[in-house]
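Subject: Sanity check before I submit

Could someone independently write out the structure tokens for this chain? I want to compare against mine line by line before I put it in a report. The sequence has 266 residues.
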Amino acid sequence: MISYGLRDELKNRPDSLQWWHRYAHVLDQPTASDDDGELRVLRYLAEQHGVLSFSQSVACAARSLRSLWAADWSEDDLDSAELWNIKEGHVSSVWLVSVLHAGDDAHTHFILNVARDIDAGPVLEDTSQAMRTLLDRHPELPIAAVLDIASVPLTQGTGTRNVVVTRNEYVPRALEAHLIGSVDGTTARSPEHRIVLIERFRTSSEHPAQIIGAHGRYASLDERERMYQAVDDVAAAAAPDLPYRVDLNHGDLVWSPGGPAIVALS
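---
Independent answer below. Compare away.
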């Protein structure tokens, strides 16, 4: 998935969004040929916008986890911790953390969101704070709690910058909701605009960054109405001072056995 700042950079260049499909998987590989002019431009723009490579995202998530480990638990409390990458969104890389407590079979689960680039950092911070505010005002809203908003240092190029990382409540067995047949994931309500609940995306074998399909199922009428109600409830609670919304085409909402859950804002 193309990062937030790079998407805006490329959207006004003819056919340039396709560059991401062709080169995303080799963007940070020094052995990849740099003879192609499109690849050179994409690498330059990625550097200008501070786009994190997968390994850099791993490093930020691990550094954040180590900070939490030192601050919230003692060495005797924990046995191990695992990081699983579950999604690459435009704004953040999403990591599931599973912590095993010493002397017990109990796990603690939570989500870490790592901002994808320099432009995404303020967006992740602002929308996460808005989620906190909404849930404080309206605890009945189905919003996954934002547990922490912080940053970690990252050496990138010749300098060091802070990368925004948030810690969020984990929604178990969640399926990402998307609205089929509409480019606007906030307003469509027509019967032909069906909601699909996605278990995982399918990508091209030739271009791994290009989504070509998905595995999942269609939402039932009851599920769809409950999700629409959640979108409307958040919109009503956010007005007029919080200029954010739930977009069903941006992965802002998931469906779990407990019902709809808002995991991000747009």
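---
OP: Matches mine. For the report I'm noting this point. The mean pLDDT is 88.
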